[in-house]
Design a protein that fits this description.
Number of helices: 22
Radius of gyration: 24 Å
Distance between the termini: 41 Å
Strand content: 5-15%
Strand order of the largest sheet: 4-3-2-1-7-10
């Protein structure tokens, strides 16, 4: 591999530093750009970047339901606690979150009728602590009938208020039964910021899911009563579970879409370090100046990353508005990628031709989780097509290279950017994102097939049309 992109959390930051130390000791050309997420890099928890990326999905889902999460109160059930990066940061991204229930591996938190301002301030306090659990929550601030219950308890009595908030008639439950009730709560948002797979499809067995720890309380996608499912954490639901939830009207993408901002941030970190290390080597910047410059660009790097999250969701949602119109193009793209050995539809839980025939007859298209996978494969295909063409060498597309980097780097180190060793790859990535996020996953492949042109020719024509208009 050229370099490592590492999720920069408490555990792996040390591994990144170790890897970068070895890289520097061997005189490897990447030095400390070999592994992202070390101590001299972008701290994902401080930036809250993964949660902020997931929140772009949350905002878009609610926008489609006519709700603005940043101005309107909405109810939430969650997986995680305030000491965690994705859950902790996520539950501070709107002052209108009414967190009704949440659980981690230690406790179950229930607040049947939370005061949004008071609970927001208390979550902030917990997040700021060096470490915390739900047991540290000030119990006096929890609304009547709520509380914090250990998962080690034999059974938990539920107050009338808790039963109403969680939509259950059971007066007493075991912790495992209560976890299931929390997952099935009739809330606006179910936010997964923890570790584990909590949602499967009705026809899947627990053994197929491969997460034994959650077998006792895992639920089916078709049973969920939330309106929106957001996956800041990885593998919160199986792909079949997502599809089942989406087919009954739930709003969901995939974990790869929701939490992509962390990886995207690491990608930017590595490419910026590769750029600046060459400037340091040339004697135009000291290491201390480089580190200060890296830190000063934190907010702009975050903005560049989050724009990808914003437009990816937009692309998937736009496709949902014309499901039958796009179905032919989606089928053609999947068939083409499968024939080239680039896609296994069964492994990715994408519908086969028979299922597409059935959906067409029932006037159904692909769900958002399926559309998310098609978008990912379309981007990988287009990237390879562009790399194999001479498009990345066209000076006109240097603007795509410049758009990838923060403004200050373009102003100070324009020549170094133009000589970046991964210049072609960055251009191909940026253009693939820009074109397919704007025009949809099937656009380039469909047009190329229709007019018997290369993908790069379609991208050139699209760029020309966009610039002219």
């Amino acid at each position: 591999n050229t370099y490592l992109v590492v999720a920069a959390d408490k555990g792996t930051a040390t591994f990144s530093d170790t890897a970068n130390g070895i890289s520097a000791r061997y005189g490897f050309w990447l030095c400390d750009a070999f592994a992202s997420g070390g101590s001299v890099g972008y701290d994902h928890k401080k930036m809250g970047i993964t949660a902020r990326g997931a929140w772009e999905s949350v905002k878009r889902h609610f926008r489609s339901l006519g709700v603005n999460t940043q101005t309107t109160r909405f109810t939430v059930a969650g997986v995680g606690d305030m000491s965690g990066d994705v859950f902790g940061n996520g539950m501070l991204l709107s002052e209108h979150i009414a967190l009704v229930a949440a659980f981690d591996h230690r406790h179950i938190f229930i607040d049947p009728a939370p005061d949004v301002a008071i609970s927001y301030a208390e979550r902030q306090r917990l997040f700021a602590l060096p470490r915390s659990s739900w047991d540290d929550y000030d119990k006096r601030l929890i609304s009547a009938g709520g509380g914090v219950f250990p998962r080690s308890a034999k059974s938990i009595k539920l107050s009338p208020q808790a039963r109403t908030a969680l939509g259950t008639e059971a007066e007493e439950l075991t912790p495992a039964e209560l976890l299931r009730v929390v997952l099935l709560a009739p809330v606006d948002l179910l936010y997964n910021g923890g570790i584990g797979t909590y949602v499967k499809a009705n026809f899947e067995t627990h053994a197929q899911v491969g997460d034994k720890a959650s077998d006792a309380f895992r639920v089916n996608g078709g049973e969920l009563r939330c309106k929106v499912l957001a996956e800041g954490g990885n593998l919160g639901a199986t792909q079949n579970g997502r599809i089942e939830f989406a087919q009954k009207g739930g709003r969901v993408y995939t974990d790869a879409i929701d939490n992509s901002a962390g990886v995207d941030c690491s990608d930017h970190e590595v490419n910026i370090k590769i750029l600046l290390d060459r400037v340091v080597e040339a004697g135009d910047l000291t290491l201390k100046q480089r580190n200060n410059l890296l830190a000063s660009m934190t907010d702009e790097v975050a903005a560049l990353v989050l724009s990808d999250n914003y437009y990816q969701g937009q692309s998937i949602d736009a496709a949902l508005h014309r499901p039958l119109y796009l179905l032919d193009g989606q089928q053609g793209l999947m068939q083409s990628l499968a024939a080239a050995g680039r896609l296994n539809r069964a492994i990715e839980f994408l519908p086969g031709d028979e299922e597409i025939l059935r959906r067409r007859a029932h006037k159904q298209g692909l769900t958002a989780p399926e559309g998310a996978v098609v978008l990912a494969y379309a981007k990988m295909w287009l990237f390879d097509e562009l790399i194999a063409s001479n498009l990345p060498d066209d000076p006109y597309f240097n603007q795509a290279l410049q758009a990838y980097f923060p403004k200050v780097l373009n102003e100070k180190f324009g020549e170094a950017i133009a000589a970046h060793p991964l210049k072609r790859e960055i251009i191909a990535t940026t253009i693939s994102n820009a074109v397919l996020n704007r025009a949809g996953a099937t656009f380039v492949h469909y047009v190329a097939t229709e007019v018997n042109a290369g993908a790069a020719d379609v991208v050139r024509a699209d760029t020309l049309a966009r610039e002219i208009f």
